[in-house]
Amino acid sequence: QADGKFTSGEGDKQENAGTYTFKEADKSLHLDSDAGPGDDSNWQLIFRPDTLLMRGIGTERQQRSEVIMVR
Question: Where are the beta strands (DSSP E) in 1-71?
Answer without folding.
Answer: 5-10, 13-23, 28-33, 41-48, 51-56, 66-70
